[in-house]
User: Which sequence fits this backbone?
């Protein structure tokens, strides 16, 4: 299956467009190649490879539109898919929220594709598994991990002259190390666009060390604690908050951003003044595509500045309703950090808990963005600037809004799940019960 | 195509958020859902190409799954149709054992050439992986069933029901909710048909036609002045049924506590939407719960999720063994506890059964995805852990020689693995109604419907919310509660189960998109129970101010 160049993609889409008789026709073409290896019990369990390619046609007559997809791109198939989309459009009811596609746009050149990641081989994947399994075996630890890599392209062309093309590459890795006596567990996660930045042995060592360090955890009472959240622990909560910065739900009165008496909290200070969150598709550590599925250019956008909400995301439809400019949803989140390393943060903590990650996070109350979940794979008690001993896992019930108002210190930023999140020290983080899980 | 058989797709936004992309396949017109798939004679011939090629390349076992997966999803919001999606995915997945090791490959080219190539790839993968395999795969024997078939016993095929009827039903439910005071309503219908053909070198050729349906909505009431909003989810359950589930038969519903309507094998979405709007409004001013210990009376459409998380998942043998350690986790229910023969999972009245044959359930099929005839078996009997969920290459670990028949793959292009069967709590043997149960409770909370859920990676500590909560005082419902969640530990919780209503109250809960594995695959599973009472459970107050 082919990963088409910009010109090849344009040619296929132009051919499809040539068959269109609709008022407006929009074509999306994408293709990807991905491979993975999974291991558990210190042995490879599955490995796989997948190719995908799809061409989607959206045809519109007035506010009626229909979409059809196909995975073969010969002329007859292209004509068939366009015809089918037009049939569907004619039969569909009017969509009052239908927006005319955008005309030509100017996009920044994306930097989220790295050739080395596209060149990953099955042998490389096996070596990653081996870099986990071999050191684990030597330390009486059992490795279970997953490496998933992909690369591909997406492209868009419409009858109003818009053309967009972007290539991407990603590699995601996680490994869980468990001591063979079943009392210790450690974990690490890495993700990059550029696989040459990835060192499986170094990552695996961190998880092994955590597993060994977390053996024989002691139970301490649940309650409010000062915590040091590793970026992997904080990221999910911050991502959930970012996803909720939606103008429409806020305007509709069904968001944590909705205000008593009507209106929204836009422009209000809702977090500690040291909290700054923005998105930037061209950030070298966490690059993304520079356009979204609606063909809108993605630019650096500030969401939270000095604790104040500076932007809410507006779809094109909602922006038109409200008479404002659309603000596309972020493609990544970057939270500003500080200079402190994890060691510095631990050194500066009199009493606290170090949290490696949070797990099974679920919304409890969307009104307050309250979430519950548990600590997992390395939770430690800190006393007088040092890790004293591992502690049993806790269940938490906490809102990122409360958490980011209880900010003590920000540390260095780390990439996690395509976002850039700092280590952070938080006071009064709410743990509500203990778990026996290792 | 008639005007009313439209397919409207304003982008795949709503659907792609909810549905795994790998299941979607290509979008197709509505009438194409009714097109006959490949003839079963051709399927057999194609499957034999895979089996014979595998054997000629040295495989000691092979199976082939030819799958046509048809989905129809309808999404609406208030008075608008947001999306109607029809998708079709067709192809073949071939799994082999060569050199004692599994190999798998798939292709959408269901031709002799395509199948031969994919089979060669599967054998090559098996041989390559055998170099690092520690122990050869041991398969439990299965009988050769010959050419057999099985169908979900449906009365109305969703594919034959016009889209307009489905859209009209959802829009009427939305309108009814709005008229009853809702500010917003989103509703959806998910309908699935798996046409699966399985063949293996053990001599079985199994043709199955599996149907599932899930109507659902969320109704929101907003108090702009107070800056508050509350959402009430549908009281429906996803079912292994046809479109007849939408008939709203009076015989399949009954009045529960506080006047709420409880649905069994037939669902009245319009009536439920009206109740939802009224209840969402009432929630805006309901009392916030005082935290503390309560006796909980849990309704089946709520308890099903607790069963799913605290019994279903921890008794998956692959989790117990560590194969899921890096994703969902392992299990507290270790082999030594099971081997002891006296691990007290719950109180003596707790009987939990696995069942892949239950009519109307999401997990019901005739044969699993490795050609094993489905059955029912005990997991917990009289409170004691007695078995796990295991497939052909696992049961030998339990000293058993018959697979439990719970192997599943979400599509032809994913490899099959152990998935949760329906896991259900048997109803109480003595006649006992919900009303009698509530009458016996001094300080308690009645919880109906699913809500927030979270459990640790070994399935000890959990926290559950619900759709709706009522306070019980001295044997009576005294009013609605807000901000309720309960926290417990699996073994403590099931040991605090003191009463279970009788079979008249037995209903199914369902999970339509249960995730497991890396890369993740979804499956659908039901959990039956009757309303049950759990004493002295810790309830927290989840209210906060920000």
Assistant:
């Amino acid at each position: 299956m082919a990963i088409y160049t910009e010109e090849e993609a344009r040619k296929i889409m132009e051919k499809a467009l040539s068959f269109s008789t609709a008022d407006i026709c929009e074509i999306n073409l994408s293709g990807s190649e991905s491979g993975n290896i999974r291991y558990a019990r210190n042995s490879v369990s599955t490995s796989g490879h997948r190719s995908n390619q799809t061409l989607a046609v959206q045809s519109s007559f007035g506010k009626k539109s229909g979409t059809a997809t196909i995975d073969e791109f010969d002329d007859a198939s292209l004509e068939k898919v366009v015809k089918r989309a037009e049939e569907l459009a004619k039969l569909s009811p009017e969509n009052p929220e239908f927006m005319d596609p955008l005309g030509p746009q100017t996009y920044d050149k994306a930097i989220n594709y790295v050739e080395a990641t596209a060149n990953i081989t099955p042998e490389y994947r096996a070596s990653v598994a081996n870099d986990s399994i071999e050191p684990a075996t030597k330390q009486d630890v059992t490795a279970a991990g997953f490496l998933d890599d992909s690369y591909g392209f997406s492209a868009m062309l419409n009858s109003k002259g818009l053309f967009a093309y972007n290539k991407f590459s990603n590699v995601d890795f996680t490994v869980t190390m468990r001591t063979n006596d079943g009392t210790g567990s450690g974990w690490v996660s890495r993700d990059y666009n550029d696989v040459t930045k990835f060192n499986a042995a170094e990552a695996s060592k961190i998880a092994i060390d955590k597993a060994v360090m977390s053996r024989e955890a002691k139970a301490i009472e649940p309650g409010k604690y000062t915590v040091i959240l590793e970026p992997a622990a904080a990221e999910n909560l911050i991502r959930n908050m970012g996803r909720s910065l939606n103008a429409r739900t806020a305007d509709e009165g069904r968001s944590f951003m909705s205000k008593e008496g009507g209106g929204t909290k836009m422009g209000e200070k809702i977090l500690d003044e040291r909290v700054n969150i923005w998105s930037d598709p061209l950030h070298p550590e966490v690059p993304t595509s520079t356009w979204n599925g609606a063909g809108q250019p993605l630019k650096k956008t500030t969401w939270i500045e000095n604790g104040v909400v500076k932007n809410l995301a507006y779809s094109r439809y909602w922006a038109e309703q409200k008479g404002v400019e659309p603000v596309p949803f972020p493609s990544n989140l970057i939270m500003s950090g500080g200079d402190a390393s994890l060691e510095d943060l631990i050194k500066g903590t009199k009493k606290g808990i170090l949290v490696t990650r949070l797990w099974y996070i679920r919304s409890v109350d969307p009104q307050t963005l309250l979430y519950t979940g548990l600590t997992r794979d390395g939770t430690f008690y800190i006393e007088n600037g040092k890790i004293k001993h591992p502690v049993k896992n806790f269940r938490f019930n906490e809102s990122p809004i409360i958490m980011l108002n209880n900010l003590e210190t920000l540390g260095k930023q780390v990439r996690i799940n395509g976002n850039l999140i700092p280590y952070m020290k938080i006071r009064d983080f709410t743990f509500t019960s203990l778990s026996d899980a290792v | 195509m008639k005007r009313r058989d439209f397919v409207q797709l304003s982008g795949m936004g709503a659907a792609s958020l909810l549905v795994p992309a790998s299941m979607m396949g290509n979008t197709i017109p509505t009438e194409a859902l009714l097109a006959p798939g490949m003839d079963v004679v051709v399927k057999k011939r194609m499957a034999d190409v895979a089996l014979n090629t595998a054997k000629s390349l040295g495989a000691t076992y092979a199976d082939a799954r030819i799958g046509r997966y048809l989905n129809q999803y309808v999404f609406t919001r208030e008075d608008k149709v947001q999306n109607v999606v029809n998708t079709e995915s067709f192809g073949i997945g071939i799994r082999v054992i060569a050199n004692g090791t599994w190999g798998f490959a798939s292709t959408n080219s269901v031709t002799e050439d395509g199948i031969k190539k994919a089979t060669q790839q599967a054998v090559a993968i098996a041989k390559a992986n055998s170099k690092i395999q520690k122990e050869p795969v041991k398969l439990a024997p299965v009988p050769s069933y010959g050419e057999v078939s099985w169908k979900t016993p449906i009365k109305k095929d969703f594919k034959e029901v016009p889209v307009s009827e489905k859209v009209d039903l959802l829009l009427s439910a939305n309108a009814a909710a709005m008229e009853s005071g809702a500010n917003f309503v989103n509703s959806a219908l998910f309908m699935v048909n798996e046409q699966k053909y399985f063949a293996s070198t053990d001599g079985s050729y199994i043709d199955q036609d599996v149907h599932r349906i899930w109507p659902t909505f969320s109704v929101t009431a907003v108090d702009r002045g107070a800056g508050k909003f509350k959402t009430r989810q549908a009281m429906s359950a996803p079912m292994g049924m046809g479109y007849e589930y939408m008939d709203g038969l009076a015989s399949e519903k009954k009045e529960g506590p506080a006047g709420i309507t409880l649905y069994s094998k037939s669902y009245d979405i319009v009536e439920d939407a009206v109740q939802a709007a009224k209840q969402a409004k009432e929630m805006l001013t309901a009392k916030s719960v005082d935290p503390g210990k309560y006796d909980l009376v849990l309704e089946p459409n709520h308890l099903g999720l607790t069963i799913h998380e605290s019994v279903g998942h921890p008794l998956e043998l692959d989790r117990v063994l560590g194969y899921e350690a890096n994703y969902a986790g392992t299990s507290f229910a270790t082999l030594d506890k099971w081997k002891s023969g006296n691990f007290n999972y719950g109180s003596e009245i707790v009987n939990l059964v696995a069942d892949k044959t239950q009519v109307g359930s999401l997990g019901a099929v005739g044969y699993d995805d490795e050609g094993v005839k489905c059955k029912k078996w005990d997991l917990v009997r009289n409170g004691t852990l007695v078995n796990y969920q295991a497939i052909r290459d696992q049961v030998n670990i339990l000293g058993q020689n018959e697979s439990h028949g719970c192997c599943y793959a979400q599509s032809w292009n994913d490899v099959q693995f152990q998935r949760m069967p329906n896991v259900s709590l048997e109803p109480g043997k003595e006649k006992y109604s919900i009303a009698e149960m509530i009458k016996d409770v001094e300080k308690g909370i009645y919880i109906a419907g699913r809500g927030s859920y979270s459990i640790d990676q070994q399935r000890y500590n959990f926290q559950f919310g619900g759709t709706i909560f009522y306070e019980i005082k001295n044997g009576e419902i005294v009013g609605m509660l807000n901000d309720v969640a309960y926290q417990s530990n699996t073994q403590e919780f099931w040991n605090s189960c003191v009463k279970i209503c009788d079979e008249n109250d037995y209903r199914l809960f369902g999970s339509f998109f249960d995730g497991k594995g890396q890369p993740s695959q979804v499956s659908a599973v039901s959990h039956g129970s009757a309303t049950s009472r759990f004493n002295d459970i810790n309830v927290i107050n989840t209210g906060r101010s920000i």
User: Anything to note?
Assistant: The mean pLDDT of chain B is 94. Chain B touches chain A through 76 residues (CB under 8 Å). The domain at 3-213 of chain B is CATH 3.30.2290.10 (PmbA/TldD fold).
